[in-house]
Amino acid sequence: MRYIAFFIAFILYFTVNLSAAVYNVFSNTNNIYYSTLNDITNSFVLNNNDTVTKDSLPEIPLMFERSVLGATGLHGVTYSPDVKNIDGANGGNAILLPNIKSYVKIDHYINNDSEYFYNTMTSFTLEFYLNPYRVRMNSQVLSKMAIYNDNGVTKYSGIRANIINGRLVWQFNNLFSYNGVYTNITLSEGEYLKENEWRHHSVSFDASTGKLVKYIDGLEEQVIYLTSTGDATGSPYIIEFDNIKLDPLYLGQGFIGAIDAFYFTPSYKQNFNLYKYTSNGEIISKVIDFENKNTFIDAINYIGSFTNGSNIDLYYRTSDYYFSPDDNNIAWERLSDTTNIISSSSIRYIQIRAVLNSNVDRNITPILNNVSIVYHHARAPQVPINLTAVSVNNNSVMLKWEGSHENISGYKIYYGTKSGVYNEAQHAPINVGNQNEYVIEGLNAGQVYYFTITAIGGEGGNTESGFSKEVYVRLVH
């Protein structure tokens, strides 16, 4: 993200009538991802790591999650005062160890859960990004070592990763055993390190086959079979962490440079996510209620930046009735790239989904600043005019009126015995269809009745107009 030199702003604009309103879908309250790139705020980006602002860098301990050592309990993180945050290998933050005395110490506290973890962990993977500022001989990058007594003999047990003769060398002391006999293992092959270059380093052990692999950037650099025969056909060695489970793990104490994305997990890995960004990611809005079933969407616009093969796809789904934000029964429809107009007619509820796609190399992310919905409520038909009411006899009234020439499906007659009051149960509105006169029967002789009328139609065909001018009549005895 930080290395993109320029962006192409792509803004879709749709001209609508003056009565249209705009609903901003993704705003501050909806932020899921956040970017400070070129001081762009309120933006959504793809990111493999935790995203933070320039002015709010995390504390060093917060950069180490429970996945470190597979811990289910808490662990303490302390570090030398000179350790700093810097930009990481794939965005986010890394730790900088500026001199040979710099370190990060991870104390692993044991509880019942983590005891179980150590007793059951057989396969494992250690991995991190490394950027040496200096490739020094015997620079210690990682160490988790313990001293123990074996029948009166002092022995060392643990894991080390040191820079020796320009390479990162892994050493496992008295951890692997076969038939109770421990052995020391060294992985020293592979590419030479270069100063000021991020590379991903890992070592992984498969307990089912005895395969121990050293990787650089996800490629096998050295493979050893820890088996009875030294190949894939033998019985595998076992690894025991009991002697080192209470001892701290150190990063640094000899290494000058940066470390990022450090993990120690109880599984054998052959594939690593080494891309700067994920291939895609999505941002889903809440279900938006326009509080009117006769709402029309004029356009769904978005403002974003993308280049070199990255892109943004917008989807939407609508309903006349409320649905849960994670409802799987309503299908998503893709918004047209050329018209930004949805296929639905009138709606009440809508939900928006933006899919951000990085480029093929996953080193460039699209940035989405905002999505807005331009909408309006259905335009009502014109109010009927020239309403008249004439008493036909002592219990009937003839109503006549003039309607408009627009799309009209019918009219509703409202009436009552008080001016402006038409909601009495016995005077429910009468839907008379598409005609311009109507006789109301069953009225009370000598009673004064007040009448008004509305038109049904307009945009969408079922919108009701306002009331016409009220008229009244007293029925003859």
Give a description of the structure:
The protein has one helix at residues 112-120, and strands at 8-11, 21-24, 44-45, 75-79, 84-87, 93-97, 103-108, 124-132, 139-150, 153-164, 167-178, 181-187, 199-206, 211-216, 219-225, 238-239, 249-252, 257-265, 280-284, 288-289, 295-306, 311-319, 333-334, 349-357, 367-377, 385-393, 396-402, 408-416, 430-433, 437-440, 448-457, 463-464, 471-474. It has 477 residues and is an all-beta fold. Strands 4, 7, 9, 10, 11, 12, 16 and 17 form an eight-stranded antiparallel sheet that branches. A hairpin with a 2-residue loop joins β26 (385-393) and β27. The chain is rod-shaped, with a radius of gyration of 37 Å.
Label this structure with key terms.
single chain; mainly beta; eight-stranded antiparallel β-sheet; 2% helix
Short description:
The chain is mostly beta strands and 477 residues long. It has one helix and 33 strands.
Task: Give the count of helical stretches.
Answer: 1
Specify Rg, calculated over alpha carbons.
37 Å
Task: Report the portion of residues in β strands.
Answer: over 45%
Biggest pleated-sheet summary: 8 strands, antiparallel
**Helix fraction?**
under 10%
Unreliably modeled segments: 1-18, 28-41, 49-57, 65-74
User: Shape, please?
Assistant: rod-shaped
Strand elements, count: 33
Query: Which class best fits the helix and strand makeup?
Result: mainly beta
Multimeric state: single chain
Indicate the mean pLDDT: 82
How far the N terminus sits from the C terminus, by CA atoms, comes to: 87 Å
